[in-house]
Amino acid sequence: MLGPVQARAMNTPSLPGLEPVPQPVEWAPTRAAGLARLSQFAPQTGRAYATKRNYDFGPGNRGNISALSPWIRHRLVTEQEVLTAALARHSPAACEKFLQEVFWRGYFKGWLEQHPSVWTAYLSGLDNARHSVGQDYQDALAGRTGIDCFDAWTHELRETGYLHNHTRMWFASIWIFTLRLPWQLGAEFFLHHLLDGDPASNTLSWRWVAGLHTKGKTYLARPDNIAKYTNGRFQPTGLASVAEPLTEPQDHPLRSIPASVAPPEGPYLLLLTAEDLCGAALMPHAPDGALGLLSPSGGFLATDFAASGLEFALDDWGQKPITSDNWGQPLVEAAARTGVRRIVTPYAPIGLVRSHLDAAEPVLMSEGIELIRVRRAYDNLVWPHATRGFFGLKKQIPRLLRDLGLTG
Fold first, then answer.
1. What is the average per-residue pLDDT within 114-125?
2. 201 with 321, same domain?
3. Least trusted range by pLDDT, from 12-16, 34-38, 355-359
4. Which of 42, 72, 173, 352 has a Cα at 20 to 30 A from 407?
5. In the chain, how many domains are there?
6. In terms of domains, do 200 and 287 share one?
């Protein structure tokens, strides 16, 4: 999910007869494929996007949205490149809505980075939720609820690894308020199956729907809204008519963003993960070796996208990705094999990769191996503005664009 802004615009006129030309998307896990999609969609990032972006015309018809998120998620294409492409074709005012959606991703990452206890609470709630569900949960996962749109979206997610942003909001709302299932399990379902499954965007979007992110503010999936924005494909019945906000016992205090350090000048090993498949571009000189690590969790399509992308990224070094729950051991072995005592990796924000790195670091330190995490300049610039609601960052977008050198 890029952000609730997708689901808030409810006054866009219906589009009978104005659907975009059918345009399925093939998410090949390569930078070249992502750049090709960006080039294809960039001319539409202006008024066409603002007018049609909330419509879900179905998986074979994605001409009204960028569908760039799987490539952005794994940094095969960067946010700055997407902003640059849009501004090369439109004025900031003309593509304002598209620019905002790009910055939503940075907002969510920066917000979770500064509220890490939200991720810890999500994992704890997930463990508890697994012991409190029954057949209703299994029916939801299998698309057997009897709610036409929800069941169709469940199968679409499993079969394609993707859902339209507006649809993700409807799905989450039905999961929480109609099916009365724990939100953490729905968030896990998305995170495991989405090609663009991102810990920050996914967790905080589910919390926003539930009334936890912006306390007391929920999102209710309405039958008329679904019918309108799916262009009549669905006419759901039996949906909840109210969405009482969920509550939680703890607050999540603001924490400082950990410092980023410069890449080293001397010998190092490059560690690539699914968080940043083009991380080699951050380094001032070539590494003395490289390796890639993956977690075994996730659905087949999402895992395969990340694994294939990582395999492409490692091709120059003749390496294959290593799938493991214990990252310390392969990192120590790689350092011993090459004799290099510094491992450099693109900075991983809060999420599963970060947890693996945090667990591995003491193991590396005990072996005299240094782990250096290098954060992108874009993240250093954007994340500090994500302390409260999106509006605070939104006000900074003109200045951020200037600081990025994208506007005068």
1. 97
2. no
3. 12-16
4. 72
5. 2
6. no
Is residue 262, in this structure, part of any structural domain at all? Answer: no
Instruction: Tell whether 80 and 167 lie within a shared domain.
Output: yes
* Domain match, 113 and 227 both: yes
Residue type, 28: A
Per DSSP, the three-state class of 294 is strand
- Nearest in space to 293 (alpha carbons), one of 308, 307, 279, 312: 307
- Taking alpha carbons only, the member of 288, 256, 281 closest to residue 376 is 281
Q: pLDDT at position 132, please?
A: 87
Task: List the strands of the sheet with 290-294, edge to edge.
Answer: 322-323, 290-294, 269-272, 342-346, 370-374
| CA-to-CA dists, residue 182 to 119, 167, 219, angstroms | 16, 19, 16
5 in Cβ contact with 167 (< 8 Å)? no
Give Cα 250 distance to the centre of its chain.
25
User: 363 is in which domain, residue-wise?
Assistant: 269-374
Check: CB of residue 255 under 8 Å from CB of residue 116.
yes
Half-sphere exposure of 120 (CA within 13 A, CB side): 9
**Cα gap 319→290, rounded to integer Å:** 7
CA distance 355 to 359: 6
The encoded tokens of residue 301 equal 């399509």
Q: How far apart are CA 187 and CA 108, in angstroms?
A: 15
DSSP state of 177: I
Q: Which helix (H) or strand (E) holds 121?
A: helix 117-129
Q: Pairing state of beta strands 342-346 and 370-374?
A: parallel
- Decide if pLDDT at 344 tops 90: yes
pTM, two decimals, is 0.93
- Cβ proximity of 80 and 404 under 8 Å: yes
Instruction: Give pLDDT, residue 275.
Output: 97
- Cα distance between the two ends of the chain: 30
Taking residues 234-248, report their average pLDDT. 97
How many angstroms separate the CA atoms of 285 and 267, rounded? 9
User: What CATH number has the domain bearing residue 362?
Assistant: 3.40.50.620
State both tokens at 401. Answer: 């664009």
